[in-house]
Design brief:
alpha+beta, seven-stranded antiparallel sheet, six-stranded antiparallel sheet, globular, GATase_2_dom, Gamma-glu_amide_hydrolase
């Protein structure tokens, strides 16, 4: 599978958590104790909304087929910019080829999307799922991954108006098509999607045994727990991180996202709600 990280809060140099954290996403690309694969070296992607960009602006993307731990450009980029909202994804390819168009995150207008997981039986389900994409959106599918198809299904089902319902409908479509093809547990994954202002994260699998996902506790609360941790000074009070694995070993600093749930993050805080239950 893969590992990913999403940040929302005061503008931050992404290197602070992408590179410099004890268990950063780059460290996870080389050693992922909670992942399905220990090494996630089949390329990576970094997407960000520039500081000061107007609402509705497109995010910028950087993709590479190099391992994240070996890419000097990623280090240069994440140390040179600041961003109030960014995604990072390191890939462990399941079946599709290793190429830049298969690296997350994906973009459509002001929306970004990334996924850790897989559609079971993808080779058999691919045609039916791809044909369910709105024809006006189909030309934007540039790669061969199940994740990109899921993103465009969600766009087809109204992602821009109701992200939670649209992601849910897209996953239910995967499950319906999968069951029609005799696949018992078609969907597995954690998903992040953003419009540049709000961040939505999802943890769900058809089997009820989804890959790991965590979010950070409130920064003021963490500071109270660990007043001597100087590295916390880099974060504003509204800083929030969602990540496949905790970025450090401080007890209480990261909270597991419940199974079958949607997580909504904005400048007002965190909200959980059940997702595809029943």
């Amino acid at each position: 599978m893969c590992r990913w990280l999403a940040y929302l809060g005061e503008p931050l140099r992404p290197s602070t958590i992408v590179l410099d954290a004890k268990h950063s996403i780059v460290a996870q690309s080389l050693n992922s104790p909670l992942g399905a694969e220990t090494v996630n070296g089949d390329g990576f992607g970094f997407g960000w909304y520039p500081t000061g960009a107007p609402q509705g602006a497109e995010p910028a993307l950087f993709h590479s087929i190099e391992p994240a731990w070996n890419d000097a450009n990623l280090r240069e980029l994440t140390r040179a910019i600041t961003s109030p909202l960014f995604f990072t994804h390191v890939r462990a390819a399941t079946a599709p080829p290793i190429q830049q168009t298969n690296c997350h995150p994906y973009r459509y207008e002001n929306w970004m999307f990334m996924h850790n997981g897989a559609i079971a039986g993808w080779r058999e389900l691919r045609r039916d799922l791809t044909m369910a994409i709105d024809p006006s959106l189909y030309p934007n599918v540039l790669g061969t991954t199940d994740s990109e198809v899921l993103f465009h299904l969600a766009l087809t089902y109204g992602l821009r108006d109701d992200p939670i319902n649209a992601i849910g409908r897209a996953i239910r479509t995967v499950e319906t098509v999968g069951h029609d093809h005799g696949v018992q547990f078609p969907w597995q994954g954690t998903v992040a999607v953003s419009d540049g202002t709000t961040l939505w994260a999802f943890r769900y699998s058809s089997q009820g045994r989804t890959r790991s996902l965590f979010h950070s506790a409130d920064i003021p609360a963490i500071r109270l727990m660990y007043p001597d941790q100087e590295r916390l000074a880099a974060f504003g009070d509204n800083a929030k991180v969602v990540v496949s694995e905790p970025l450090n070993d401080l007890p209480g600093a990261f909270v597991e996202v419940p199974e079958s749930s949607a997580l909504i993050l904005d400048m007002d805080g965190y909200r959980h709600q059940p997702f595809l239950v029943g």
